[in-house]
Structure formats: structure tokens, C-alpha cells
């Protein structure tokens, strides 16, 4: 009986510490930022500077490395724009994006993203079958609202997306 009384408090303490480790920032990956999906939100100064000046800063784990490599390689015709990246910037961006791509990100969605993509190399996050499925119940007209503009404007409905907040309870669809 004495052993049972000693084991129960010990097990309770182990469970409490494990629970704390799962949610407390001190136990988060690398930079202390946890997004929905349990992965750290990776940061890179070059990525932020070069990419967020024009659009929402997409999480690298939403595409496989081969897609990011193709996007950087084709940066002279990035959705109709020449990004004007020099070789050093291309190298740094490619290294960062592929190091944090779906194959390596640790996001809970990444395996689902990779499974849906298969051997394809999507050039846009909006082409990813898993992303399309998650947004499938939303009518096309919603994405055309002035406050949203298009399906690629993630930040319009995911205000916490820049911190990894993509769970349904963090969605706020503008009228």
C-alpha cells in the first residue's frame, strides 16, 4: 500500500511536467515561438525582408523543399515580378526555406501536405491539395471580398498566421 501512495504523486508530477513542456514557451523549439500544429515558427531576416514587403510571410512548412527551390530559382518571374535577388540572397533564402520545408518543419500539417502533393512540385501554396481541402467549404465569392482579395491572402482570415496560428479557432473571416 505504501508503494501505491508514493507512485501516484510521482506519476502526477511526471504528467504535470510533461503537460507544461508541451505548452510552455521555455520548452518550445529554437526561438520559443510555437504555432498551431506544434511547430516553431522559423525566422530569418532575409526571408522577412525580401518576402514580407509584398505579401504574407508564408510558413516554409506549407511547401516541400523542391517547391521552394523552384520558386527561388524562378525569382526573376515570381508571379509576374522580377524580385531582383542577387545570388547571395537566392542562396540564403533557398537554404532557409528548404531547411524549414514540409519535409523538415515538424508542423502537424506537413505530413498531410506531403501526402497530398506526392511527387508534384506545386508553385503556390494555394495549389496544395491539403490547403485546398481545408478551405473547400468556403465559397469562392468569400475570397473576392475587398478585405480578402484572393485565396492567397492568408493573413486576411488568419490574423495569427504569422505566428503559426492557423487552427480553425483562430480564423476570422472579414465581411
Please give a structural write-up:
- It is a single chain.
- By secondary structure, this protein is mostly helical.
- It folds into two domains: 30 residues; 140 residues, no CATH class.
- It is built from eight helices and no strands.
- Helix 3 packs antiparallel against helix 4.
- About 17% of the residues have low confidence.
Produce the secondary structure layout.
Layout: H1 2-23, H2 45-51, H3 65-73, H4 87-99, H5 110-117, H6 129-134, H7 140-143, H8 154-157
Helix pairs in contact: 3-4
Helical fraction: 40-55%
For the termini, the CA-CA separation is: 62 Å
Shape: globular
Q: What integer is the average pLDDT? A: 79
- Tally of alpha and pi helices: 8
Percent of residues in beta strands:
under 5%
- Poorly predicted segments: 8-36
Number of strands: 0
Structural class label: mainly alpha
- Series of H and E elements: HHHHHHHH
The biggest beta sheet is recorded as: none
The whole-angstrom Rg is 20 Å
Number of domains: 2
Which features characterize this protein?
2 domains, mainly alpha, 0% strand, globular, 175 residues
Summarize the model shown.
With 175 residues, this protein is mainly alpha-helical.
Amino acid at each position: 500500500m505504501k508503494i501505491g501512495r508514493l507512485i501516484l504523486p510521482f506519476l502526477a508530477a511526471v504528467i504535470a511536467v510533461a503537460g507544461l513542456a508541451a505548452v510552455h514557451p521555455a520548452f518550445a523549439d529554437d526561438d520559443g515561438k510555437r504555432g498551431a500544429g506544434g511547430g516553431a515558427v522559423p525566422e530569418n531576416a532575409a526571408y522577412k525582408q525580401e518576402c514580407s514587403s509584398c505579401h504574407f510571410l508564408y510558413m516554409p512548412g506549407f511547401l516541400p523543399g523542391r517547391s521552394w527551390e523552384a520558386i527561388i530559382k524562378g525569382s526573376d518571374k515570381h508571379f509576374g515580378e522580377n524580385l531582383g535577388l542577387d545570388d547571395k540572397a537566392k542562396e540564403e533564402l533557398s537554404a532557409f526555406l528548404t531547411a524549414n520545408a514540409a519535409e523538415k518543419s515538424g508542423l502537424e500539417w506537413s505530413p498531410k501536405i506531403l501526402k497530398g502533393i506526392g511527387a508534384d512540385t506545386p508553385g503556390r501554396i494555394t495549389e496544395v491539395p491539403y490547403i485546398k481541402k481545408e478551405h473547400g467549404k468556403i465559397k469562392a465569392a468569400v475570397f473576392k471580398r475587398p478585405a480578402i482579395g484572393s485565396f492567397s491572402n492568408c493573413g486576411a482570415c488568419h490574423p495569427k498566421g504569422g505566428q503559426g496560428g492557423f487552427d480553425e479557432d483562430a480564423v476570422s473571416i472579414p465581411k
